[in-house]
Write a structure and sequence with these properties.
heterodimer, A: mainly alpha, two-stranded antiparallel ribbon, 13 helices, about 0% strand, B: alpha+beta, Ubiquitin-like (UB roll), three-stranded antiparallel sheet, 2 helices, 3 strands, elongated
Amino acid sequence: MYSQFVDTGVERMRCAEELPELERAFQDKIDSDIKIEPKDWMPEAYRQTLVRQISQHAHSEIVGMLPEGNWLTRAPSLRRKLILLAKVQDEAGHGLYLYSAAETLGASREALIEALHAGKAKYSSIFNYPTLSWADVGAIGWLVDGAALINQIPLCRCSYGPYARAMVRICKEESFHQRQGYEIMLALCAGSAVQKRMAQDALDRWWWPSLMMFGPPDAESIHTQQAMRWKIKRHTNDELRQKFVDQSVPQADYLELTLPDPALKRNEQTGHYDFGAIDWSEFWSVLKGDGPCNRQRIATRRQAYDEGRWVREAALAYGAKQDRRRAEFS
Amino acid sequence: MQDWPLWEVFIRSRRGLAHKHVGSLHACDAPMALANARDIYTRRSEGVSIWVVRSTDIIASAPGDKPILFDPSEDKVYRHPTFYEIPDEVDNL
């Protein structure tokens, strides 16, 4: 989802007897729901997997500010503008909570950001789509933040303490994001025919990329099995995706909008909605850097980082000067 | 470029409660650490007071020392009031 494809570095699952003693004690802790904290011993693969997942998640929050930032100066009213500013500021905050959590595992903030800017680190595919109209801001809040919540609520129970705690704060804040988005859609759908068409158009463009946010089907994946045994991941991608579809259908119905999937149909036997095939070739191409806005997103991030460099250096020099002065006078 | 120094943030959520660790952040000096803590950790009136401490100034016990530090209190159950048997008829004890 915000981390759609995380390599655990594991090639096959080992049974309990095969684990070295330290690792077996570690797995026992996880099995009895004891949280792992920064200074505890942990297998290197667990640490690496978490750094990968948490940093992908952090990068997604930071890059995720860009599509919405596009509409900050063009929000249709002062009320909407204030709300959008607060939401974008929250995303920055979420990125910072997550970078901090990654740093408790020994990762350096600078190195993580460099990996993002060098195109080596992934972030969610969803933020590589353009925001063409104001209705996109509504669709993002409703669908993208809605999908994020479904993925993030189980992460609040993740085995790694700092990550779980960051997710608790994030989930509390994310609920407002989803609701403000749906409220924008409500307003547009109760408006003129043109506004309603705008809402439908945004839904048409954001629906499938939102479903892709949960990542490829993974029940069989070795990485999913390992991440689930470590209790980093609690559900498969498909379980979460189904939950999202089931919750979105009545919400779209209420707006009297049509989800762009002719195959979407309630399955009376399972009680869930069946839906059409997802175009995974699009997903992989966006994830590998060839989505509509990948290059623009990274270029914008780099520009902000490079143009802010002198400020960061000056602030650091000023801090060092103050430390020296304090040392001289004490 | 090197990372800015790391700070730990503690927030008192309301008067009468102790400050509680909420997370960390990077800042060049103390005023900036306070300002960043305010922006990052108290956007929804989560606090009435903030402490920031340089992470390098915190001395933490090692997880490996847990038995040495904390096991001795395991066998001192007489430190808890429930250790003592008092007849039900006796009040105010």
